[in-house]
Amino acid sequence: MNKKAIILSSGGIDSTTTMAIAKSEGFDIYSMSFNYGQRHSVELKKGGEIAKFFKAKGHIIIDIDLRNIGGSALTDNIEVPKDRKEEDILRGIPITYVPARNTIFLSFALAWAEIIGAYDIFIGVNAVDYSGYPDCRLEYIRAYEKMAELGTKMGVEEKRRIKIHTPLISLTKKEIIRKGLELGVDFSMTHSCYDPTDDGKACGRCDSCYMRLKGFREAGVKDPLVYASN
Amino acid sequence: MNKKAIILSSGGIDSTTTMAIAKSEGFDIYSMSFNYGQRHSVELKKGGEIAKFFKAKGHIIIDIDLRNIGGSALTDNIEVPKDRKEEDILRGIPITYVPARNTIFLSFALAWAEIIGAYDIFIGVNAVDYSGYPDCRLEYIRAYEKMAELGTKMGVEEKRRIKIHTPLISLTKKEIIRKGLELGVDFSMTHSCYDPTDDGKACGRCDSCYMRLKGFREAGVKDPLVYASN
Questions:
Q1: Does this complex have an ipTM over 0.90?
Q2: What domains appear along chain B, each with residue ranges and CATH number?
Q3: With contacts defined as CB-CB under 8 Å, which chain A residues touch B102?
């Protein structure tokens, strides 16, 4: 029997490549997505397709209402910035930062892990492109593991180590795309845009589209997505 | 201007006394409750009354669907144990343990804290009556604080310490009740039962009712609640 791993899936390039890596390491895939009132809820549909592609043993979508809490362009009525220069995208904590988002996501993953008996959680955080997000750094992830061990039955009673895998943490977008392609990921399944059109097309102009397009360009591969601004 | 504190409120004796303590320490109260498909959703109604009693500046209820994850008598279709002996209640991790529950709750509190600019979170965990819950121990709370500092903008950019207050951690139920009464808490507002009747009466027989009744008995005070089995 394979070991079980929970993979946090947003339907984007990073989490999909992360899922491919977990699969290639021999884990059974348990995919977990979140509906948090994000603008880009098209990602949820993608999450299901992707889970199927990797023959996931489980796939759940958790509804959480971060809208009640507010405070980010991704969940609030703040405008998603468009056509920003790369140095602006990479500088400081972006407006699209959702407070404690990864902490919330990992907490649900931890609960599910305890139920199904998984000791491995994969998250596609990346410290290169998302240097402004505090919860995308390895230091944070290690502190999370420690807390998880002390706060769960499996950690305390069964003395299990809970491992949070971050295989992309030091890769550039170009390297992530190449890694994904190498593992057979079909990137036409994935979705990255912060502000898609009503029919689900990527805008091509937000920070996330910018970084995605740049990654494909640098990888020397055509992005299979159709963009609204193409 | 007073400092802001987020108080996790379940509508029970512990969290209500915790709120009274935060209030007595001069904090403005921001009350946070969770609707997680628990059997005892009467606690949500109580949460609102209690927030009002303490003149909370904010009160939000977060919907989360732990039912999808399953795995506890409080959210699943497992029967709530009744009429257990005290030594059984206190031994090991109880069936009513919800995996990673405090981790999830604290994560939402952390997100809200970051939005409203609060650096203090109060949680009524108790290591005496709930010795079986890994996430009711100080060691876990300290690890959570560390993770919270490393994973948030306020921790990383503003170098703020995030304090998780656990004023009840080493008190017995008797002492908690006495403390609450001393601070003017009206315990008829509170609710503890794991398995209330349809009209919201406490069963008087589950572990939580047992510990509550014992606490009042030992405090030498009559519990103002009406029980189904009275």
A1: no
A2: 4-185 (3.40.50.620)
A3: 151
